[in-house]
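comment on this one:
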Amino acid sequence: MAEVGLVPVALSEKAELRRLLNPYLIAHADVVDPQRHHGAPTDYPNFDAYWTELERRPYWIQAGADRVGFALVNRYSPSGLGCDAGVAEFCVLPQWRRAGIGLAAACAVFATRPGLWELQVYEATAPALAFWPRAIAAAGAREATEISLADRRVHRFRVG
């Protein structure tokens, strides 16, 4: 496997990220909100803020020279308890999955900021339910807890 890392998404690449983000959001909504109770899945009001607000960062996931996905990091706390950082979106493109890239990329994401992290996983997304506890453990996280909400789980953990 090629070395996996993160590269900040440049402002000039914003449209390219949006082209990858939209199908990801639609696929996610097809699983967690097929009736579209929460509106159009591609409505993403804070998208532009990833290039203007310091607590938000967009990253490309790279495997060697290949761009294989993306991650959006912010400070949103789905538990409401507050955190230093959170994974808003994380996508390894389908053709690159099941090769260890996601695990390595998640560890790279967590290494971007020390502190208390949160991320939420919807109960309807079985692959993500299995993936994130493994990724959190692989990153050497401490104080890892899960909070169960109506339709999702919130992972809270400390890295760094």
Q: What stands out?
A: The mean pLDDT is 95. The two ends are 25 Å apart (CA to CA). Helices lie at 14-32, 101-110, 126-138. The chain has one domain: 4-159.
